[in-house]
Amino acid sequence: MILSIYLYGQPVLREETKNVPKDYPELKQLVDNMFETMYHADGVGLAAPQVGLSLRMFVVDADVMGDDFPECKDFKRVMINPEIIEESEEEITLEEGCLSLPGIHEKVSRAKSIVISYQDTDFNTHEEKIEGFAARVVQHEYEHLEGHVFIDNISGIRKQLNKGKLNDIIKGTAKCSYRAKAVGK
């Protein structure tokens, strides 16, 4: 089932999330719905707050980026209750966008590599070192779990330059090609 994607201005995007309990009802169905929603919106990642749930989980499938970024080939994960436990000092700056901020793209600096601990849908724990663009995707989604969005990482002047677009998103007048839930709707 395709879910609505919550847009910038929705309070759930600013909440710190809660751990997903092992007895969370219909978890695998939620994961399937999140992947379906992400694919429908042409995204490579989707966090639970983006579908209105204040839970520590996200899905990623960066395989579509594999031609330009080999580390993304076959990079598909469900990360439940993740914790970034290490970040490289070296950073890379690249342009990002977000399904919750349609029409906005800005350059963001992120750690070149990370080590992350997370659980899968069977609550088995994994620890993984992720590099390059795949690490960027994971860091972007992880930020949603901390109540942040990628524009929190840009300069004040860049935020000011995007103010009109941000106001359009909040008012519900921004255009997007997927099912979305703006503040006033």
Salient structural properties:
5-stranded antiparallel sheet; alpha+beta; 9 strands; 185 residues; two-stranded parallel sheet
Strands of the widest sheet, in order across it, are: 2-3-4-7-8
Uncertain spans: none
Per the principal axes of the C-alpha atoms, what is the gross shape? globular
Largest sheet: 5 strands, antiparallel
Beta fraction: 25-35%
Taking the alpha carbons of the first and last residues, their distance comes to 20 Å
What sequence of helices (H) and strands (E) makes up the elements? EHEEEEEEEHHHE
Compute the number of helices.
4
Overall structural class, as computed from helix and strand content, comes to alpha+beta
- Rounded mean pLDDT score: 96
Model description:
- The model has no long low-confidence stretch (mean pLDDT 96).
- The chain has a 5-stranded antiparallel beta sheet, with helices on both faces. It has a two-stranded parallel ribbon with strand order 1-9.
- The protein is 23% helix and 27% strand.
- The chain is of the alpha+beta class.
- It has 4 helices and 9 strands.
- A hairpin with a 5-residue loop joins strand 7 and strand 8.
Short description:
By secondary structure, this protein is of the alpha+beta class.
Topology:
Blueprint: E1 5-6, H1 27-40, E2 45-47, E3 57-61, E4 76-87, E5 91-96, E6 106-111, E7 113-119, E8 125-131, H2 132-145, H3 156-161, H4 163-171, E9 180-181
Parallel strand pairs: 1-9
Antiparallel strand pairs: 2-3, 3-4, 4-7, 5-6, 7-8
